[in-house]
Write a structure and sequence with these properties.
2 helices, 128 residues, Thiol Ester Dehydrase, Chain A, elongated, 6 strands, alpha+beta
């Protein structure tokens, strides 16, 4: 898995139960995944098609550092599927603990918002 983003949980990110608000985590995952999909597809023009079931395994508290990792699962003709995982990082012992994971599908689009084919070389590289 590749490190694609790092976040710090701030007071403004906290919900009523003193944990990171789930919607904020979803935003972080989507943004990081979109950046990875753009990088892999060599274009900034990708949109989120689908976020699979999200598993919130552990709560995130204020000041905790979150590292978001991604892995390409499949590249289709116009879409790319990524597995994305958020991990809490402990600075004392340098250990990471998974707090959330999901699969997200992005679609490459043109300037009119219509799907565009992802280059064959990219599909071949990731679908071996």
């Amino acid at each position: 898995m590749e490190l694609i983003s790092t976040k710090i949980c701030k007071t403004s990110d906290i919900g009523i139960n003193n944990n990171l608000f789930g919607g904020t985590m979803l935003s972080w995952l989507d943004e990081a995944g979109g950046a990875m999909a753009s990088s892999v597809c060599c274009t900034p023009q990708v949109i989120t098609l689908k976020i699979d079931e999200v598993l919130f395994k552990k709560p995130v508290k204020v000041n905790e550092h979150i590292r978001i990792y991604g892995k390409v699962e499949r590249v289709g003709h116009t879409s790319i599927a990524l597995y994305i995982e958020a991990r809490r990082f402990n600075f004392t012992n340098h250990e990471e603990e998974t707090v959330c994971s999901t699969k997200v599908i992005y679609v490459r689009i043109d300037s009119m918002g219509k799907p565009v084919e992802i280059d064959r070389e990219i599909r071949d590289k990731y679908n071996q």
